[in-house]
Write a structure and sequence with these properties.
Number of helices: 9
Structural class: alpha/beta
CATH architecture: 3-Layer(aba) Sandwich
Distance between the termini: 32 Å
Shape: globular
CATH superfamily: NAD(P)-binding Rossmann-like Domain
Number of strands: 7
CATH class: Alpha Beta
Helix content: 40-55%
Largest sheet: 7 strands, parallel
Radius of gyration: 17 Å
Order of helices and strands: EHEHEHEHEHHEHHHE
Number of domains: 1
Strand order of the largest sheet: 3-2-1-4-5-6-7
CATH topology: Rossmann fold
């Protein structure tokens, strides 16, 4: 399968979980992939190793997306390595659940800096290099639709991602650059395991509110992203695709 042959993709936050699955899926479809990481070089190297072992092309590039110089550096590294960028997946994200009375300035800024500012900074840097036919894919969340308790700040960041997707689709549309978001439901990842969501009452609640009767796996999201990155999605822009098995 090579629908992304000769394309170059940058995936932020790709050292594990959904980001790693996206990087591997894009590579399997023919794209050369920049695997960005913030802290886990070992995780990013593992993803790169798996891609290369499968016959693909990938490099690991460190950088904190919420830092303007780092964000530009990620894009510069992609251009230096591959000479172009065709696909940008803004996957980097953090979450920290807290009820209203527990929200602090640190809790707020930590999530908005990565989930919102980081997305804007990387897209700003990438937009200088994107050409007609390029695709920007933002990873949102169904939380912006289902608004669960104790998620005010995280849900606000993902609501911002929804809004930014619409705005950038209009800004970049005249250049024939598409911008869409994929909004996963609960997905089984290293993060949801370490946060204690897997096997918890929250997982039980999530499954009970999902018509397809299970939580997601990283490849469920990666396949939707690969579709949006390809010319099969050439007539889609400004869309928010809920990828949560029907939960909303």
């Amino acid at each position: 399968m090579s629908k992304l042959q000769s394309k170059v993709a940058v995936v932020t936050g790709a050292s594990k979980g959904i980001g790693a699955a996206i990087a591997k899926a894009l590579a399997a479809s023919g794209a050369a992939v920049v695997v960005n990481y913030a802290t886990s070089r070992a995780g990013a190297d593992k993803v790169v190793g798996e891609i290369v072992a499968a016959g693909g092309r990938a490099v690991a590039v460190g950088g904190d997306v919420s830092n303007a110089a780092h964000a530009a550096g990620i894009i510069d590294a992609a251009i230096k390595e591959y000479g172009r960028i065709d696909i940008l997946v803004n996957n980097s994200g953090v979450y920290d659940m807290a009820p209203l009375e527990a929200i602090t300035e640190e809790h707020f800024h930590k999530q908005f800096n990565v989930n919102v500012l980081g997305l804007l900074l990387v897209t700003q840097a990438a937009a200088k290099h994107l050409q007609e036919g390029a695709s920007v894919i933002n990873i949102g969340s169904v939380v912006s639709s289902i608004t669960p308790p104790s998620s005010a700040v995280y849900t606000a960041t993902k609501g911002a991602v929804d809004a930014i997707t619409g705005v950038l689709a209009k800004e970049l549309g005249p250049r024939k650059i598409r911008v869409n978001s994929v909004n996963p439901g609960m997905v089984e990842t290293e993060g949801t395991h370490s946060a204690g969501f897997i096997g918890s009452d929250f997982e039980t609640w999530a499954v009970s509110n999902t018509p397809l009767g299970r939580i997601g796996q990283p490849n469920d999201i990666a396949d939707v992203v690969t579709f949006l990155a390809s010319d099969d999605a050439r007539w889609l822009t400004g869309e928010k695709i809920l990828a949560g098995g029907g939960s909303r």
